């Protein structure tokens, strides 16, 4: 299986096709997918890269938990971000999709005797989940900038490369 990355950003798509970002919230609702659209768009905010960062954060959380933002366990009082946040960082292994981790690595994480490898795997997972949480923050101002996302994820890849 090979992963493919695509630019699904609304901000870039709409800015190239129009002269301004004055797109109505109803148009955003039509173009976006439920669970991935930044909450501020429901309040009539203009499209921005911050909204794309939110969507990326949700996608990252989905990939590492195996849970979609539209799964039945989520409702008005619990969303994917909150679900992950409640387990972060101390209970992170309880929310990570078991299919994501090879059997050997899963055993390492639960084997106290292999503390060095265990620490690196957990450090990597915590780093990536942290990016997902920061990107999917409800407040656009609190979300990570794309350059910082790249730096943090690159550092996480280097950590896991040493296992």
TrEMBL record:
Residue intervals of the Protein kinase domain: 1-160
One GO cellular component term noted in the UniProt record for this chain: membrane
GO molecular function annotations of the record: ATP binding; protein kinase activity
Signal sequence extent: none
Superkingdom in the source lineage: Eukaryota
SUPFAM superfamilies, per database record: Protein kinase-like (PK-like)
Name this polypeptide is given: Receptor kinase-like protein Xa21
Gene (name only): LOC105035826
